[in-house]
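Researcher: Let's do a round of design. I'm pasting the C-alpha coordinates now; please hold your answer until I've finished.
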Protein backbone atom coordinates (compact mmCIF):
# COMPACT_ATOMS: atom_id res chain seq x y z
CA UNK A 1 0.00 0.00 0.00
CA UNK A 2 1.09 3.58 -0.70
CA UNK A 3 2.62 4.91 2.58
CA UNK A 4 0.31 7.94 2.65
CA UNK A 5 -2.75 5.77 2.11
CA UNK A 6 -1.48 3.38 4.77
CA UNK A 7 -1.06 6.19 7.32
CA UNK A 8 -4.54 7.56 6.55
CA UNK A 9 -6.16 4.17 6.70
CA UNK A 10 -4.52 3.28 10.06
CA UNK A 11 -5.52 6.65 11.45
CA UNK A 12 -9.12 6.23 10.25
CA UNK A 13 -9.32 2.79 11.83
CA UNK A 14 -8.04 4.11 15.16
CA UNK A 15 -10.56 6.99 15.06
CA UNK A 16 -13.37 4.50 14.37
CA UNK A 17 -12.32 2.39 17.38
CA UNK A 18 -11.88 5.49 19.54
CA UNK A 19 -15.43 6.63 18.62
CA UNK A 20 -16.84 3.43 20.09
CA UNK A 21 -14.79 3.57 23.31
CA UNK A 22 -17.19 4.36 26.21
CA UNK A 23 -14.31 4.75 28.66
CA UNK A 24 -12.70 7.53 26.59
CA UNK A 25 -16.10 9.17 26.03
CA UNK A 26 -16.75 9.25 29.80
CA UNK A 27 -13.23 10.51 30.59
CA UNK A 28 -13.60 13.24 27.94
CA UNK A 29 -16.96 14.49 29.15
CA UNK A 30 -15.74 14.36 32.78
CA UNK A 31 -12.65 16.33 31.76
CA UNK A 32 -14.67 18.95 29.86
CA UNK A 33 -16.96 19.38 32.85
CA UNK A 34 -14.12 19.57 35.40
CA UNK A 35 -12.07 22.05 33.32
CA UNK A 36 -15.11 24.23 32.54
CA UNK A 37 -15.37 25.02 36.25
CA UNK A 38 -12.08 26.93 35.84
CA UNK A 39 -13.02 28.53 32.50
CA UNK A 40 -10.24 26.50 30.83
CA UNK A 41 -11.46 27.78 27.46
CA UNK A 42 -10.12 31.25 28.35
CA UNK A 43 -6.52 30.08 28.85
CA UNK A 44 -5.14 30.55 25.34
CA UNK A 45 -4.04 33.28 22.96
CA UNK A 46 -3.65 33.30 19.18
CA UNK A 47 -0.81 35.55 18.03
CA UNK A 48 -1.10 37.55 21.24
CA UNK A 49 -4.89 37.90 21.59
CA UNK A 50 -7.09 35.79 23.88
CA UNK A 51 -9.07 33.19 21.89
CA UNK A 52 -12.03 31.66 23.73
CA UNK A 53 -11.85 28.17 22.23
CA UNK A 54 -10.75 24.67 23.20
CA UNK A 55 -7.36 24.05 21.46
CA UNK A 56 -8.63 20.93 19.66
CA UNK A 57 -11.38 23.02 18.04
CA UNK A 58 -8.73 25.53 16.89
CA UNK A 59 -6.78 22.69 15.25
CA UNK A 60 -9.97 21.45 13.55
CA UNK A 61 -10.70 24.96 12.22
CA UNK A 62 -7.13 25.16 10.91
CA UNK A 63 -7.69 21.92 8.95
CA UNK A 64 -11.03 23.14 7.57
CA UNK A 65 -9.69 26.53 6.46
CA UNK A 66 -6.65 24.91 4.82
CA UNK A 67 -8.78 22.31 3.01
CA UNK A 68 -11.65 24.58 1.91
CA UNK A 69 -9.55 27.71 1.23
CA UNK A 70 -12.30 30.30 1.78
CA UNK A 71 -11.92 33.82 0.45
CA UNK A 72 -14.32 35.13 3.10
CA UNK A 73 -14.79 34.02 6.72
CA UNK A 74 -17.73 35.53 8.60
CA UNK A 75 -17.57 35.30 12.40
CA UNK A 76 -20.20 36.31 14.94
CA UNK A 77 -18.73 37.01 18.41
CA UNK A 78 -15.38 38.81 18.48
CA UNK A 79 -14.74 39.26 22.25
CA UNK A 80 -10.95 39.83 22.64
CA UNK A 81 -10.30 39.19 18.94
CA UNK A 82 -8.35 35.92 19.13
CA UNK A 83 -10.66 33.98 16.82
CA UNK A 84 -10.83 36.63 14.07
CA UNK A 85 -7.03 37.01 14.27
CA UNK A 86 -6.69 33.22 14.02
CA UNK A 87 -8.91 33.15 10.89
CA UNK A 88 -7.09 36.14 9.38
CA UNK A 89 -3.69 34.48 10.00
CA UNK A 90 -4.86 31.36 8.18
CA UNK A 91 -6.07 33.47 5.25
CA UNK A 92 -2.73 35.30 5.25
CA UNK A 93 -0.93 31.96 4.82
CA UNK A 94 -3.32 30.98 2.02
CA UNK A 95 -2.52 34.33 0.37
CA UNK A 96 -4.40 36.32 -2.25
CA UNK A 97 -7.54 38.35 -1.73
CA UNK A 98 -9.13 36.82 1.39
CA UNK A 99 -10.88 38.55 4.26
CA UNK A 100 -12.54 38.09 7.67
CA UNK A 101 -15.65 39.92 8.83
CA UNK A 102 -16.17 39.89 12.60
CA UNK A 103 -19.46 40.97 14.13
CA UNK A 104 -20.03 41.79 17.80
CA UNK A 105 -22.80 43.63 19.60
CA UNK A 106 -20.24 45.18 21.98
CA UNK A 107 -16.66 45.67 20.79
CA UNK A 108 -14.98 46.88 23.97
CA UNK A 109 -12.67 49.87 23.48
CA UNK A 110 -9.56 48.10 24.87
CA UNK A 111 -10.17 45.07 22.64
CA UNK A 112 -10.78 47.19 19.54
CA UNK A 113 -7.53 49.09 20.14
CA UNK A 114 -5.48 45.88 20.46
CA UNK A 115 -7.12 44.30 17.40
CA UNK A 116 -6.57 47.46 15.34
CA UNK A 117 -2.86 47.44 16.32
CA UNK A 118 -2.46 43.79 15.26
CA UNK A 119 -0.65 42.98 11.98
CA UNK A 120 -3.59 40.80 10.89
CA UNK A 121 -5.98 43.81 10.94
CA UNK A 122 -5.16 44.17 7.23
CA UNK A 123 -7.44 41.17 6.58
CA UNK A 124 -10.16 42.05 9.13
CA UNK A 125 -13.30 44.20 9.09
CA UNK A 126 -15.19 44.58 12.37
CA UNK A 127 -18.89 45.41 12.43
CA UNK A 128 -20.51 46.49 15.69
CA UNK A 129 -24.15 45.50 16.20
CA UNK A 130 -26.29 42.42 16.67
CA UNK A 131 -25.51 39.63 14.23
CA UNK A 132 -29.22 39.32 13.40
CA UNK A 133 -29.79 43.04 12.82
CA UNK A 134 -30.84 43.70 9.21
CA UNK A 135 -28.40 46.64 8.89
CA UNK A 136 -25.49 44.37 9.82
CA UNK A 137 -26.70 41.56 7.56
CA UNK A 138 -26.98 44.00 4.61
CA UNK A 139 -23.37 45.06 5.14
CA UNK A 140 -22.27 41.41 5.21
CA UNK A 141 -24.17 40.84 1.93
CA UNK A 142 -22.09 43.59 0.30
CA UNK A 143 -18.82 41.93 1.45
CA UNK A 144 -20.05 38.53 0.29
CA UNK A 145 -20.76 39.69 -3.27
CA UNK A 146 -18.47 37.98 -5.81
CA UNK A 147 -16.81 35.76 -3.16
CA UNK A 148 -16.22 32.21 -4.36
CA UNK A 149 -15.88 30.32 -1.08
CA UNK A 150 -17.40 31.43 2.23
CA UNK A 151 -17.11 29.88 5.71
CA UNK A 152 -19.03 30.98 8.83
CA UNK A 153 -18.33 30.62 12.58
CA UNK A 154 -21.18 31.37 15.01
CA UNK A 155 -20.04 32.23 18.54
CA UNK A 156 -22.15 35.13 19.82
CA UNK A 157 -25.30 34.96 21.98
CA UNK A 158 -25.97 31.28 22.71
CA UNK A 159 -29.78 31.23 23.12
CA UNK A 160 -31.81 28.87 20.91
CA UNK A 161 -33.74 31.68 19.19
CA UNK A 162 -30.66 33.78 18.47
CA UNK A 163 -28.57 30.92 17.08
CA UNK A 164 -31.49 29.61 15.01
CA UNK A 165 -31.92 33.07 13.47
CA UNK A 166 -28.16 33.27 12.85
CA UNK A 167 -28.26 29.84 11.20
CA UNK A 168 -31.15 30.90 8.96
CA UNK A 169 -29.36 34.12 7.96
CA UNK A 170 -25.72 33.07 7.69
CA UNK A 171 -26.21 29.59 6.22
CA UNK A 172 -27.23 31.36 3.01
CA UNK A 173 -23.70 32.70 2.61
CA UNK A 174 -21.96 29.32 3.03
CA UNK A 175 -20.79 27.87 -0.28
CA UNK A 176 -21.07 24.18 -1.19
CA UNK A 177 -18.31 22.08 0.39
CA UNK A 178 -17.71 24.74 3.05
CA UNK A 179 -18.86 24.88 6.68
CA UNK A 180 -20.89 26.78 9.23
CA UNK A 181 -19.48 25.99 12.67
CA UNK A 182 -21.75 26.48 15.68
CA UNK A 183 -19.86 26.88 18.95
CA UNK A 184 -21.01 26.09 22.48
CA UNK A 185 -23.49 23.39 21.46
CA UNK A 186 -21.83 21.66 24.44
CA UNK A 187 -24.08 23.73 26.75
CA UNK A 188 -26.78 21.10 26.14
CA UNK A 189 -24.59 18.46 27.79
CA UNK A 190 -23.25 20.44 30.75
CA UNK A 191 -25.03 20.93 34.09
CA UNK A 192 -27.44 23.90 34.03
CA UNK A 193 -25.77 25.56 37.01
CA UNK A 194 -22.71 26.27 34.83
CA UNK A 195 -24.83 28.67 32.73
CA UNK A 196 -27.19 29.80 35.51
CA UNK A 197 -26.06 33.45 35.08
CA UNK A 198 -26.75 33.30 31.30
CA UNK A 199 -29.98 33.45 29.26
CA UNK A 200 -29.14 30.00 27.79
CA UNK A 201 -28.91 26.54 29.34
CA UNK A 202 -30.00 22.95 28.85
CA UNK A 203 -32.91 22.84 26.33
CA UNK A 204 -32.24 26.39 25.08
CA UNK A 205 -28.83 26.67 23.43
CA UNK A 206 -26.89 26.34 20.14
CA UNK A 207 -27.34 22.52 20.07
CA UNK A 208 -31.15 22.78 20.18
CA UNK A 209 -30.97 25.48 17.48
CA UNK A 210 -28.89 23.19 15.22
CA UNK A 211 -31.44 20.36 15.66
CA UNK A 212 -34.32 22.64 14.66
CA UNK A 213 -32.39 24.20 11.77
CA UNK A 214 -31.58 20.78 10.29
CA UNK A 215 -35.24 19.63 10.40
CA UNK A 216 -36.08 21.92 7.46
CA UNK A 217 -32.71 22.04 5.75
CA UNK A 218 -31.14 19.26 3.74
CA UNK A 219 -28.37 21.43 2.29
CA UNK A 220 -26.34 20.91 5.48
CA UNK A 221 -25.31 17.85 7.45
CA UNK A 222 -23.37 17.40 10.68
CA UNK A 223 -19.82 16.36 9.82
CA UNK A 224 -19.34 13.93 12.71
CA UNK A 225 -15.89 12.96 11.44
CA UNK A 226 -14.52 16.15 13.03
CA UNK A 227 -15.82 15.57 16.57
CA UNK A 228 -14.97 11.88 16.26
CA UNK A 229 -11.30 12.69 15.77
CA UNK A 230 -10.85 15.69 18.08
CA UNK A 231 -13.03 14.21 20.87
CA UNK A 232 -12.65 17.32 23.06
CA UNK A 233 -14.91 19.97 21.49
CA UNK A 234 -17.24 22.80 22.45
CA UNK A 235 -18.99 22.31 19.09
CA UNK A 236 -20.66 18.92 19.57
CA UNK A 237 -22.75 18.31 16.41
CA UNK A 238 -21.79 21.88 15.47
CA UNK A 239 -19.55 21.30 12.43
CA UNK A 240 -22.14 21.66 9.66
CA UNK A 241 -21.03 21.00 6.09
CA UNK A 242 -22.90 22.40 3.11
CA UNK A 243 -23.46 19.38 0.90
CA UNK A 244 -25.66 20.97 -1.80
C1 LIG B 1 -17.82 33.66 23.40
S1 LIG B 1 -17.52 35.31 22.96
C2 LIG B 1 -16.74 35.15 21.38
C3 LIG B 1 -15.41 34.51 21.46
C4 LIG B 1 -14.59 34.57 20.20
N1 LIG B 1 -15.26 33.98 19.07
C5 LIG B 1 -13.29 33.80 20.41
O1 LIG B 1 -13.22 32.62 20.03
O2 LIG B 1 -12.36 34.37 20.99
C6 LIG B 1 -19.11 35.90 22.60
C7 LIG B 1 -19.22 37.34 22.05
O3 LIG B 1 -20.51 37.48 21.46
C8 LIG B 1 -20.94 38.80 21.59
N2 LIG B 1 -22.40 38.87 21.40
C9 LIG B 1 -23.38 38.63 22.31
N3 LIG B 1 -24.58 38.82 21.76
C10 LIG B 1 -24.37 39.16 20.47
C11 LIG B 1 -25.22 39.49 19.37
N4 LIG B 1 -26.54 39.51 19.50
N5 LIG B 1 -24.66 39.78 18.18
C12 LIG B 1 -23.31 39.78 18.03
N6 LIG B 1 -22.45 39.51 19.05
C13 LIG B 1 -22.98 39.21 20.23
C14 LIG B 1 -20.44 39.21 22.99
O4 LIG B 1 -20.33 40.62 23.07
C15 LIG B 1 -19.11 38.46 23.08
O5 LIG B 1 -18.04 39.31 22.75
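Researcher: That's everything. Go ahead.
Model: Designed sequence:
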Amino acid sequence: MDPIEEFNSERQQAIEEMRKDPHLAKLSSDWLLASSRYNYVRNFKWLGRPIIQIPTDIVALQELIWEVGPDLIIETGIAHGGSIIFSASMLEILGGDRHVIGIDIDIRKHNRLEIEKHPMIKRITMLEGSSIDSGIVNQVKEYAKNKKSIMVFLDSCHTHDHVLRELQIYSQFVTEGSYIVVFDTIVEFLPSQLSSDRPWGSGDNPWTAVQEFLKDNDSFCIDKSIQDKIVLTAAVDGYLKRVK
